[in-house]
Amino acid sequence: MQFYKDRILNAAQLKRLSEHKYSCTSASILDAWLQPWWCWLVSKTPLWLAPNLITILGLIVNIVTTLILVWYSPDARQEPPRWACALCALGVFVYQSLDAIDGKQARRTGSQSPLGELFDHGCDSISTVFIALGACIAVKLGEYPTWMFFQCFCAMTLFYCAHWQAYVTGTLKMGRIDVTEAQYAIIGIHLVSAILGPAAWTSKILGIQCGLYATAVSFAAAIYFTINFASTFRDRGCGKNGSTVAIPTVNQSLNLVSNYGVVLVTLALVFSYVKVIMKGGVGKNGSTVAGTSILSPVIPFSLVVVPAFIIFQKSESHVYENHPALYILAFGMVAAKVTNRLVVAHMTKSEMEYYDWSLLGPAMLFLNQYFNNAIPEYYVLWLCTVWVCADLIRYCGQICLEICDHLKIRLFRIPYPPAPASPKHTERNGFRELLIGIDGCDCLVLIKFGDTIVTKYNKYTLSTDSEKSENEDSAPLLNNNSIT
């Protein structure tokens, strides 16, 4: 394995990436309700503002507000200030909103490109780590370090599995309750901590720990997830030769009890992803988009999770228990790097390499333990964190620059004023479908030959006089099922 390649993507991969078409299905409940807010927000966004710049600004806000929580409670056992929890809730809201409108801004300005999809998912992989960590600190989950470990790695695993499924089936699938609902749930957690204080998570109601109620809700959600995702199990992959493209007692506190529900939901989701993956890919003989084994992505992520758990358990100085935030950030950035490589493999229809230089960070901790902690583990952990962060930034930067050079575009700048977008037409069942954009939002117009124009979007019937409409950022816009 070469230390650092001069170019990460070869000419064939860049060609396949330029031909990549974004495919996503979403049935999210909150997305439909939030469309008016997102459409209003993007309509107020300057046309010169690049979509990637919107995404990175949201990520920066999310990172900064979470690091404030980490500063006040690096061990996740100290009680952070209430204003810091409120600020973190605002940070997640800002990130979620900006992340939702970057695609709308891209269509509004005619600057859509495969780079936008990759950049968006890359920022999401990093944000997942910070959002999960912030939620753990807000409820003082450091009092139960093992559960905090599982909580954070559950979030990373679910995000990875979603893109693993996309690598196999060629389509990113979102359920009725998915990432948007999870983000707003975490906003709610921060607001509870801001209003009532983190100590509220250890309180009792009618002699029963509040966490018991949260567990009941989470358990019901886990059952719902299992049923909801079961309906997608018939999909197959697109590659070659089978390849890819228990109820707690009332004596436990809320911050611990609610984790049981989180684990149940995670297991249900992972189980649903695995069932879809094991059905095979969408290509020849049920393979993945890249013509590789549908199980191949499990190895790179295992090389992150397994060492993280072993090092945590074998540490004589209890490096994780004493510095959980730093530990999660270190391994979270490795997980983000591996997830980014999976997204790149999907978009370029390429095989995913098993090893990566970011794994050198965890190897430092492992080898130091093997040699009886020749260097204090805390210092090695800091060295590991610096290394993996620098490696992630280098990789993401190089990938973006290579794609920009190939597509002849800029990362954070777009042409201004934008060229007028031409409507997209398709023929279907005797109707002519016209997809237009109004203030960054899409409007599906059904024109029946010889009859008047009828404009519809999901459950909303719109007038034909340029009235604004709301829609998703994704491909399901032209799905017959979304037309009523």
UniProtKB/TrEMBL annotation:
Gene Ontology molecular function: diacylglycerol cholinephosphotransferase activity; ethanolaminephosphotransferase activity
InterPro entries, alphabetized: CDP-OH_P_trans, CDP-OH_PTrfase_TM_dom, CDP_ALCOHOL_P_TRANSF_CS, CHOPT
E.C. designation(s): 2.7.8.2
Gene3D superfamilies: 1.20.120.1760
Pfam families reported for this sequence: CDP-OH_P_transf (PF01066)
Top-rank EC class of the record's enzyme: transferase
Bilayer topology term: Multi-pass membrane protein
PROSITE patterns assigned: CDP_ALCOHOL_P_TRANSF
Transmembrane segments: 53-74, 147-170, 182-201, 213-233, 254-274, 294-312, 324-342
PANTHER family, A to Z: BB IN A BOXCAR, ISOFORM C, ETHANOLAMINEPHOSPHOTRANSFERASE
Family recorded in the similarity comment: Belongs to the CDP-alcohol phosphatidyltransferase class-I family.
The protein's name: diacylglycerol cholinephosphotransferase
Organism: Brenthis ino
